[in-house]
UniProtKB/TrEMBL annotation:
Name recorded for this polypeptide: Multidrug resistance protein MDR
Keyword Transmembrane: yes
Taxonomy, superkingdom: Eukaryota
Record GO terms (molecular function): ATP binding; ATP hydrolysis activity; ATPase-coupled transmembrane transporter activity
Annotated membrane topology: Multi-pass membrane protein
The keyword Transmembrane helix is assigned to this record: yes
Organism: Gigaspora margarita
Keywords (A to Z) from UniProt: Membrane, Transmembrane, Transmembrane helix
Phylogenetic lineage: Eukaryota, Fungi, Fungi incertae sedis, Mucoromycota, Glomeromycotina
Length: 214
């Protein structure tokens, strides 16, 4: 209950504040520092400098205010490691397949009225991830965040989900956080974070040639 009752410093539901009409997806950080509120003595990011151009796919890897916040978040979608699915049916939800691999109502036992189960327990890992991708894309966000979007899936489901993610990243700025190199090898640029600082950056091929951290 304490978490639900906590009042954040930034009111994300406020009606005032500048509303951004157009998001290009051009991201730039200059001397960026980050700490968790409960651990100010442990810096997470220290003086981070980076830039991601619009529609580019960037990935982050490492060892294991003044605007209307609600409006800003409307331009961002998240696909996380463990999707949070409500206990309901898949009514009117497209499963995030690629063209030619569309999931039709005939592929589901009770078509789009198929019950998802508590936290999506009636769906396979691959199906849950594709539902999460479809849910993220339905708003056509300019910025897509992929937080370990391909968890411990078997090779078959991992390939299916990865193809869906690659299609989702097309023509939008994508930031991927990953530990599996196979999931980010097609990224336009990879940022290697070590001890909260920028350790190295470059393409998958360039970083493999260095063979230091990766």
């Amino acid at each position: 209950m304490s978490l639900l009752e906590r009042v954040p410093r930034i009111d994300t539901w406020r009606q005032y504040g500048e509303k951004i009409k157009t998001i290009k997806g051009h991201l730039k950080c200059s001397n960026f520092h980050f700490y968790f509120p409960t651990r100010f003595n442990v810096p997470v990011l220290q003086g981070l400098n980076l830039e991601v151009k619009p529609s580019k796919y960037a990935s982050f890897v490492g060892l294991s205010g003044c605007v209307n916040v609600k409006n800003l978040r409307e331009h961002i979608a998240l696909v996380s490691q463990e999707p949070s699915l409500d206990e309901m049916t898949i009514k009117k939800i497209f499963l995030g397949s690629l063209p030619g691999q569309n999931v039709t109502q005939n592929d589901l036992e009770k078509v789009y009225d198929t019950f998802d189960g508590r936290k999506g327990t009636q769906r396979s890992g691959g199906q849950k991830q594709r539902i999460a991708i479809a849910r993220a894309l339905i708003r056509n966000p300019k910025i897509l965040l992929l937080d370990e979007a391909t968890p411990a899936l078997d090779s078959e489901y991992e390939k299916i989900v990865q193809k869906a993610l690659d299609a989702a990243a097309h023509r939008r700025t994508t930031l991927a956080i990953a530990h599996r190199l196979s999931t980010i090898q097609h990224a336009d640029i990879i940022f290697v974070i070590k001890d909260g600082k920028m350790y190295e950056q470059g393409t998958h091929k360039k970083l493999l040639e260095l063979r230091d951290l990766l």
